[in-house]
């Protein structure tokens, strides 16, 4: 069927199309439009409350809040409502350490064991590669991050900063040479908080208050580990079925890594210091130092855009290069971000256990309206210089050792060379051309800065550092072998699980004898128990304020313990039953199949035992 459009009709369609397109791509042109856009996003995401500070070099663009700090009492978020700023706290600890360096009380290259021998840690490379203060600042100690049962408590126990550092002792083992790879580590900042206290002779929070908060005019902020002045603080929520549900405010056991409570008014003053190159309290050189990483293999190879001293690169695909720090404590997600060249910055924090990425992008887009896009300058490179780096790369810098095996299975990339062009392809993703910017540094297409570098480690192995994530070149077959083996085991277990369900149904219908049921049902029961345990762990990580439950024996932690232990026991029992009944199967095929199932389950048992998951007692991690 052919429809003829008249000129007036065509004109109306074009006008509506243009207007609709403009609406879809509209960017806030002023603060009021920005506020309206933020409020709309909060409504769509059911976030109860949000604090916002937006500044320029010479003015305050916006200070205030959206939604409620207390939903039940209808208490609105104001410019003085205190939110939990999480790891933004690390910026204050970093400043304190740098001030102590300026006072001559500390050097960044000082060895931890000499400055604080009372803090126990393990580093098998200590003779040649000791743990230094700079490694603590830049997360390059190689330490594991805090054990998840040592993050929060439900009670408001009082711990000294030294006791907090000692409480994290189970994490303080270097898993590779210090100064080699970045791996985010909260216990490192707990130790730094203790060093502030030891070297200044004052409680760390008193030193930070007297030397940073008060000089900056941040009179409302504090470093309390739990809620202490509820009338001035936000309550904390999770969103369930589109409704905010209030949850308890937990006690933080890693205070120097994330205890700061602050408000829009105070954080505007703080971020303005960075926008103004430190003035009037700090020199631009001190801010430069905070922004410049010094200690990792990637830095020594020439890449200086990564995590520095509690200061990281942000918004890779924005027009300009932003830096700052994010945070999460309880259910408050926070972000501080600034750009010294633009002379602009902002801080936000919400109380609904949801990230604020879309709001952050909206604010960045608003602040960059008149900015000229910054792009890395491409530089030619020869195929010969790239060929030795082509191949498969395995992730080697896990944050949590307990889940490192998941990253080993799933976090792999492949580098290929076509002509003088390097391509990167993640295991689950598209191949992407990289832009060489000199010195084996590369940028993603449309990125505002290079974030990838190719280098060799001390043992001569090829290393790929990508956005502070480290990969090591592996043999292609070995690199993919674990995935193939995992896929093979899954393919074996799927029909076994189906067989277990069918067999149970037949047994209930009295069509299958009990002696045949056990061999067919045990694999299904074992896998379901393991799955049940894993679900309990992942649910806690999704709602992180509940992690305090891992520190005690309760229903959830007993499920994790018994589920993982019974998986192993049932797997071994199944192997015994199959071996004993091997010659009794009606067909050799069935005997071999069930033997393969048993061996697969036992392989998983040994593997998970090595990774610390069998009989996982979360209360003693």
What is the fold's blueprint, element by element?
Layout: H1 7-24, H2 31-45, E1 49-56, E2 60-70, E3 75-76, E4 83-84, H3 89-102, H4 112-115, H5 133-138, E5 152-153, H6 161-167, H7 186-200, H8 204-216, E6 236-240, E7 243-247, E8 251-252, H9 255-258, E9 261-262, H10 264-275, H11 284-291, H12 297-301, E10 312-314, E11 322-329, E12 332-339, E13 344-350, H13 357-367, H14 383-387, E14 391-395, H15 404-410, E15 412-418, E16 421-426, E17 432-438, E18 441-444, E19 452-456, E20 462-466, E21 469-474, H16 476-508, H17 514-542, H18 555-580, H19 588-610
Antiparallel strand pairs: 1-2, 1-13, 2-3, 4-9, 5-8, 6-7, 10-11, 11-12, 12-13, 14-15, 14-21, 15-16, 16-17, 17-18, 18-19, 19-20, 20-21
Helix pairs in contact: 2-13, 3-7, 3-8, 6-7, 16-17, 16-19, 17-18, 18-19
Task: Describe the overall structure.
The protein is an alpha+beta fold. It is 41% helix and 18% strand. The protein contains 19 helices and 21 strands. The strands form five sheets. It has an eight-stranded antiparallel beta barrel. The protein has a seven-stranded antiparallel sheet with strand order 3-2-1-13-12-11-10, with helices on both faces. Strands 4-9 form a two-stranded antiparallel sheet. Helix 16 (476-508) crosses helix 17. The model is unreliable at 1-25 (pLDDT under 50).
């Amino acid at each position: 069927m052919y429809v003829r459009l008249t000129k007036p009709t065509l004109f109306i369609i074009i006008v509506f199309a243009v207007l609709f397109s403009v609406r879809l791509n509209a960017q806030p042109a002023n603060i009021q439009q920005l506020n309206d856009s933020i409020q709309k996003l909060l409504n769509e995401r059911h976030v109860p409350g949000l604090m916002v500070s937006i500044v320029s070099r010479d003015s305050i663009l916006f200070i205030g809040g959206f939604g409620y700090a207390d939903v039940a009492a209808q208490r609105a978020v104001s410019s003085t409502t205190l939110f939990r700023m999480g790891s933004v706290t690390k910026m204050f600890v970093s400043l304190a350490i740098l001030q102590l360096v300026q006072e001559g009380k500390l050097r960044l290259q000082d060895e931890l064991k000499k400055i604080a021998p009372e803090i126990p840690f393990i580093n098998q490379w200590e003779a040649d590669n000791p743990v230094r203060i700079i490694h603590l600042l830049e997360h390059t100690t190689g330490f594991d991050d805090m054990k998840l049962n040592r993050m929060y408590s439900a009670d408001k126990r009082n711990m000294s900063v030294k006791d907090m550092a000692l409480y994290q002792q189970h994490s303080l083992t270097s898993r590779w040479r210090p100064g080699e790879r970045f791996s985010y580590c909260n216990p490192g900042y707990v130790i730094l908080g203790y060093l502030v206290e030891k070297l200044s002779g004052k409680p760390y929070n008193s030193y930070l208050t007297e030397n940073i908060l008060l000089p900056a005019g941040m009179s409302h902020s504090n470093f309390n580990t739990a809620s202490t002045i509820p009338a001035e603080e936000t309550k904390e929520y999770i969103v369930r079925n589109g409704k905010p549900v209030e949850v308890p405010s937990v006690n933080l056991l890693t205070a120097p890594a994330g205890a700061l409570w602050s408000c829009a008014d105070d954080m505007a003053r703080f971020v303005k210091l960075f926008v103004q190159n430190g003035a009037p309290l700090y020199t631009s050189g001190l801010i430069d130092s905070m922004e410049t990483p010094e200690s990792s293999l990637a830095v020594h190879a020439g890449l200086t855009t990564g995590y520095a001293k509690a200061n990281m690169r942000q918004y890779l695909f924005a027009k300009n290069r932003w830096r700052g720090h994010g945070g999460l404590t309880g259910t408050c997600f926070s972000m501080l971000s600034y750009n010294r060249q633009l002379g602009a910055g902002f801080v936000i924090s919400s109380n609904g256990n949801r990230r604020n990425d879309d709001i952050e992008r909206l604010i960045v887009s608003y602040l960059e309206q008149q900015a000229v896009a910054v792009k890395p300058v491409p530089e030619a490179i020869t195929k010969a210089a790239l060929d030795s780096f082509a191949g498969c790369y395995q992730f080697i810098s896990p944050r949590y050792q307990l889940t490192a095996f998941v990253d080993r299975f799933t976090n792999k990339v492949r580098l290929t060379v076509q002509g003088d062009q390097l391509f990167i392809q993640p295991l689950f993703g598209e191949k992407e051309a990289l832009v060489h910017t000199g010195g084996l540094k590369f940028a993603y297409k449309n990125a505002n800065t290079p974030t990838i570098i190719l280098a060799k480690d001390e043992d001569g192995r090829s290393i790929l550092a990508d956005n502070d994530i480290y990969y090591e070149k592996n043999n292609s077959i070995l690199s993919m072998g674990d995935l193939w083996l995992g896929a093979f085991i899954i393919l074996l277990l799927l029909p076994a699980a189906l067989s277990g369900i069918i067999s149970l149904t037949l047994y209930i219908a009295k069509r299958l004898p009990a002696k045949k049921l056990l061999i067919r049902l045990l694999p299904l029961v074992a896998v379901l128990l393991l799955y049940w345990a894993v679900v309990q762990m992942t649910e806690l990580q999704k709602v992180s304020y509940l992690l305090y439950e891992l520190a005690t024996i309760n229903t959830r932690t007993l499920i994790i313990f018994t589920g993982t232990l019974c998986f192993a026991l049932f797997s071994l029992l199944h192997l015994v039953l199959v071996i004993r009944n091997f010659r009794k199967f009606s067909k050799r095929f069935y005997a071999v199949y069930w033997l393969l199932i048993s061996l697969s389950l036992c392989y998983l048992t040994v593997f998970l035992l090595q990774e610390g998951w069998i009989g996982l007692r979360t209360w003693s991690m």
